[in-house]
Design brief:
It is built from eight helices and three strands; from the N terminus they run H-H-H-E-H-H-E-E-H-H-H. The chain has helices spanning about 15, 20-40, 45-55, 65-70, 75-85, 110-130, 135-155, 160-170, and strands at about 60, 90-95, 100-105.
Length: about 180
Amino acid sequence: MLWGMPEAVAAPSPGVARDLGWTLGVVFRAYAKSATGVTADLPGGHRGHQVLTWAARETPMSQSGLAQQLGIDRTVMTYLVDDLERAGLVERRRAPADRRTWHVVATETGEQLLRRLDAQLAQAEAHVLAALPPHEQATFKELLQRLAAHANDRDPVGDACTVAEELTARPGDAC
């Protein structure tokens, strides 16, 4: 760095630019950076947004089912739902079919906040995808959704902690 100015970064070599891991990482970092600013005040940040989105737009689900669906550790999910509930964004309601089960459901306040966050996240997404014309953005998102669904079907995420351990483990590490 020279006089507080960031150093110029050279364009990646063609070999690196064609590497799926590198390209996904760069796009993910750009999106995460934009999205983190939008969800910073929400309990749980981006994970809180995912829980709130599910609670507002999907079939009501138990806390443990929601943890499994979103790949969040069950203990972490408990604290996350507690925080969202204290903020008045979700509530636990008894499941009609099984009174022992509690569903996580968005409150009206949660749904209003979700609409505002979604508009801001759409701007973050547009910033990340700005290099593509609108029709290519739609195609890219559709293809990415298909890839994600296929990958999740073949290797569902039990929880993010396990995935992090698997990704950082070296050959010979103890489990």
